[in-house]
Amino acid sequence: MPMPGIRTLSWWLIAWTLPALIAAALGWRGIWGSGSAFTDYLMPLPVAGGALHVPSFIVATVAVALLPTLGAAGAARVRALLIGMALAGVLFMLNLLPILAALKAGTALPSRIWDANPLGLFLISDALLALLFTAALPRPWLKPDLAALVLLLLPAAWPLSMALPRATAMAQVTFTAGLSQHGAVRGNETLMVHTTLDPAAADFRARAEAWVMAPSAMAHPRFHVSAESMALLFTRDAEAARRAGLDRVEATLCLYEDDTPPRWLPGAGDCFSGHENFSGQVARAAAARPAEEAAELRSHLAAVELCMPYRDRPVPEGQGLQVTRDLICSELARERGRLQQKFPDDPRLRDGS
User: Fold this and answer.
1) Is a pLDDT exceeding 60 seen at residue 314?
2) What is the C-alpha separation between 280 and 147, in angstroms, rounded?
3) Could you give the dihedral angle defined by the CA atoms of residues 44, 48, 49 and 55, in that order, rounded to the nearest 10 degrees?
4) Helices in the chain by DSSP H: which ranges?
5) SS3 231
6) Using CA of residue 145, residue 147, residue 150, residue 155, what is the dihedral sign?
7) Per-residue model confidence as pLDDT tens digits over 148-186
8) Where is average pLDDT lowest: 75-89, 134-148, 222-236, 273-287?
9) Conformational region of residue 352, where left means phi above 0, alpha means psi within -120 to 50, and beta covers everything else
10) Pair 326, 318: CB distance under 8 Å
11) Where in the chain are the domains?
């Protein structure tokens, strides 16, 4: 009979291409972040998203082929497995890790509940299509026996077993650095911080300030090679900490590597207006010097002038310290030697700084 051949061909064409079509319609990108998901999901190669489709496609194809030959108990168990695959796909599609971490820590659920997970999409698509292709068979859908229950729940245990240990560890960490972004002015940086604590609690600020002073946190500009001022935006939404969700920020800690004291602001506050970093002061002083001077001379002489008040101060030492002012001022002698070779007749380079 020609029908089984047509049915098999239809299954192969629909089951393999449907996830790619859905992903493309949703605007997903390939697993490496480039190009459309459509072509990426169609290729069953190790370097493409289609490789993740192979296991669920094989299981669903075997189920579609076997179901017509099985008895009532066997058919019910295969259908239980397919429903379990679909449930596992739903769990993979959920933003499961931050959801579980939030539930365990008692904090707000993440603002993004669903995730663009190709493995979840493949599982859901293959399982539901296999159930649809075999829906007309005169077999009971499910039978209440232990084997069917195990086959139903076992696939769902897969994503949970992967996420739960990490979620438990994540819930026990009080502060976790998230997305870091450079500001409009050099030296200004914003750091999203996820916290499992309540920012309104009486001890929150003291605990947060103790955390930022640990060099390993890389949350204070004194321990950050490219930052002179930092705005730490605290949120209990783990997803917002990864994508700079400013609307979910509950408190802001402003930190400066100079002598400016730290300050707290409500919500997503502005730490940078009204404060000028040392490198910004050098740039402004250099721009104010005579235009006929060479640019590197202007910058050096401006730095010499601004470093004068700190000449006799010892350079602070400590694990991970990266204070821009001290780095600039401590390099003046070496920079003067380099400039003396380039501008040997300039008297301003003879006495040094």
Assistant:
1) no
2) 70
3) 40
4) 3-25, 37-42, 54-66, 72-93, 96-105, 118-133, 146-172, 204-212, 238-243, 278-287, 295-307, 324-330, 332-342
5) strand
6) negative
7) 889 889 998 999 988 888 888 767 778 989 999 988 888
8) 134-148
9) left
10) no
11) 3-172, 175-266, 278-349
